[in-house]
Amino acid sequence: MNVDTVAGEGTEIKGRFKETLGTATADPTLRQDGLADQAFGKARQGLGALQDFVRNQPVAAMAVLSAIGFALFRNKRGR
Predict the structure, then answer these.
(1) Is the dihedral of CA 23, 26, 29, 30 positive or negative?
(2) CA distance linking residue 52 with residue 57, whole number of Å
(3) What is the pLDDT of residue 37?
(4) What is the tens place of the pLDDT at every residue in 10-54?
(5) Backbone phi, then psi, for 65, in 5-degree steps?
(6) pTM recorded for the entire structure
(7) Among candidates 19, 16, 9, which has minimal Cα distance to 41?
(8) Largest CA distance in the chain
């Protein structure tokens, strides 16, 4: 676990609280803000998981990056 994973979890919890409060008070702006916080928190947790993967499995990470690069740029060579 790293800082991004922990911060993402905190942001997601804050978003769930805002969403619940917005629903309870019939405040659509607060509810939408809560949903946005949840999405941002999940994205930040994903970034943290990716960082952990690269740190713990550098060879596998390079293999994945190479495969993605090959898939993205294989059609550009012929032009």
Answers:
(1) negative
(2) 8
(3) 97
(4) 999 999 999 999 999 999 999 999 999 999 999 999 999 999 999
(5) -60, -40
(6) 0.74
(7) 9
(8) 59
